[in-house]
Design goal:
The protein has about 375 residues and is of the alpha/beta class. It contains 12 helices and 8 strands. The longest helix is centred in the last third of the chain and has 25 residues. The structure holds 2-acetamido-2-deoxy-beta-D-glucopyranose (2 copies).
Length: about 375
């Protein structure tokens, strides 16, 4: 009797260990992940281009596992990396990386490029960047490569079952409309009309992603761009967020949510999921101490007021503990801020994730396929 109980105990122990191993270990067939957009989600495509929009020298990457600059605009991991972590997947490789070949294609790919926007004329000062139409063309090329590897039918299935993330819009304001006083776009459009134009162009991009096979597409609105240290340094006298830029996001974000709702209704399925990046960031921007940050106004790496002027370079001021800063550089959150953001992607209420959060999506998709 004693011995039987002991055997039973060990058998269940082994069973539980297996269970833990199989639920925690990254699954070989974790769903693929595709990333499109700008510097907030670029994993290093710009390293391969002649452009000034790059993050491939120190102190970028100082807290990355390799402690090397990878092209991510972060001290460590960025938002797509942490999403990959949460779906049990390897981080997405930049599409231009020579390492992205063979079996590694099946993990997905990252097509994002720092500096780009919805419009082709956004970020022209960065010269050589992968504009969104080019990102979509690369995605078609990717699908041909995967088809050659696993067959057309399997490739289509991989794409249909994948998770997508697209982050666009911030640069259409900071690196276009508001880049210089009397910019071409600001002379052409009053702000509300510019936003209407952006939304109508974004609609085409989002529909194209659906045509190309996307069935679960996370779409982020713009964050509180007027509160970034770069804008505090240039547009704020007392440390208040820039009203001009926040007015732009106030116009843009609700119309984007409306667009996604309309597209879902038109398709008859919840393909597009809106992530309220504004609210996700505002939580720790309005009360940094509540989230363990010493400040949300001063960037860890930079120079000038709020460390918000110019770029983060080897000769910039650099804070000793990046976890205490909401902003890593004048525009981009620190890894710890990115973790707070992805936490809301995973578990957030409809205020953050509409119509549902990523943990709900993962549950739904695991039971329907
Ligand atoms: C942007 O460029 C692509 C081709 O590169 C073109 O198809 C698209 O219509 C352009 N968008 C606008 C708004 O001009
Ligand atoms: C989000 O995630 C939490 C925890 O998994 C869940 O309780 C909640 O209902 C979800 N909300 C939505 C809107 O999906």
């Amino acid at each position: 009797m004693e011995q039987n109980n002991l055997i039973l105990f060990f058998m269940s122990y082994i069973f539980i260990c297996h269970l833990i191993f199989f639920t925690l270990a990254p699954q070989a067939e974790a769903r693929a992940f595709f990333v499109f957009g700008d510097s907030l989600v670029d994993n290093g495509n710009n390293n391969y281009l002649l452009t000034s929009a790059r993050a491939d020298s120190p102190p970028y990457g100082i807290d990355y596992p390799t402690h090397r600059a990878t092209g991510r605009f972060s001290n460590g991991l960025n938002i797509p990396d942490i999403i990959s972590e949460r779906i049990g997947s390897e981080p997405t490789l930049p599409y231009l990386s020579p390492e992205l070949s063979g079996e590694r294609l099946l993990v997905g790919a990252n097509f994002a490029s720092a500096g780009i926007g919805i419009l082709n004329d956004t970020g022209i000062q960065f010269v050589n960047i992968i504009r969104i139409f080019q990102q979509l063309q690369y995605f078609e090329q990717y699908q041909q490569r995967v088809s050659a590897l696993i067959g057309e039918e399997q490739a289509e299935r991989l794409v249909n079952e994948a998770l997508f993330l697209i982050t666009l819009g911030g640069n259409d304001f900071v690196n276009n409309y508001f880049l210089v006083p009397f910019s071409a776009r600001s002379r052409q459009f009053a702000l509300p009309d510019y936003v209407l134009y952006l939304i109508s162009e974004y609609r085409k991009i989002l529909l194209r992603l659906y045509e190309l096979g996307g069935r679960r597409i996370l779409v982020t609105g713009t964050g509180p761009i007027g509160c970034a240290p770069a804008e505090l340094a240039q547009r704020s006298r007392n440390g208040e967020c820039s009203p001009d830029l926040n007015q732009a996001t106030d116009l843009f974000n609700p119309q984007l949510v409306q667009l996604l709702n309309n597209l879902n209704a038109q398709i008859g399925s919840q393909v597009y999921i809106s992530a309220n990046a504004f609210a996700m960031n505002m939580d720790f921007i309005t009360d940094p101490q509540a989230y363990g940050f010493v400040t949300s106004k001063v960037a860890c790496c930079g120079q000038g007021p709020y460390n918000g002027l110019g770029l983060c370079t080897p000769i910039s001021n650099l804070c000793p503990n990046r976890d205490l800063y909401a902003f890593w550089d004048p525009f981009h959150p620190s890894e710890r801020a990115n973790r707070l953001i992805v936490e809301r992607f995973m578990l957030g209420s409809t205020q953050y994730m509409n119509p549902m959060n990523l943990s709900t999506i993962m549950l739904l998709d695991s039971t329907t396929t």
